[in-house]
Amino acid sequence: MTESQREPVKVFLVDDHALFRAGVRTELDSITDEVQVVGEAGSVAEAVAGIARTSPQVVLLDVHMPDGGGAEVLRRVRPELPDVVFLALSVSDAAEDVIAVIRAGARGYVTKTISSKELVRAVVRVSDGDAVFSPRLAGFVLDAFADRPGSAPINDPELDLLTPRERDVLRLLARGYAYKEIASELFISVKTVETHVSSVLRKTQLSNRYELSRWASDRRLV
Q1: DSSP structure string for 121-152
Q2: For the modification 4-aspartylphosphate, which residues carry it (predicted)?
Q3: How far is it, in rounded angstroms, from Cα 105 to Cα 84?
Q4: What is the largest CA-CA distance in the chain?
Q5: Distance in angstroms (rounded) separating the CA atoms of residues 22 and 17
Q6: Contact 48, 76 (CB under 8 A)
């Protein structure tokens, strides 16, 4: 069967932002017949039930969600549906996030800066058995599994004190984003950003943005 004749890859979307899911679905439906979105979910429980109901070939999986995140979806689905392939699609490009979801069983990891056409190719490739990563993310996985000096840290007691959302805020803060830009990027209020920054400062026992940036850089969060 040629590529033009092959059946579309059935895709299930998992992301806690309905607006983002709608955008991805519209883009995928409008630019290609290589993939077919068969369902979507905004939480771990909805994802587990929806994947079982629709039997997709590929699940596009957000890493951070309020009720457990992508790794929890993988933990609950893979034993029952081992043939379903998971491709992480996340705003995060942090080493610990990439490593955690790959260890949980995802076949690839791409960031939300990916273009629609590139995302389609990534979905088709993982459905065909390839591993797919955004540029530079593959190095995190190679480092972690090679277990060599300079490899990305898998466990960090200090980092483990932070919630996934606090890590997202810290990562953007360390990249020089203003509070308003962070709020827009993460779909939260400026006040919530301020609350997360205060919590990160308290947990890390640091005193200012400059120290936080250095702390994040040392842990390869930036």
Answers
A1: HHHHHHHTT--EE-TTHHHHHHHHHHT-TTPP
A2: 62
A3: 10
A4: 61
A5: 9
A6: yes
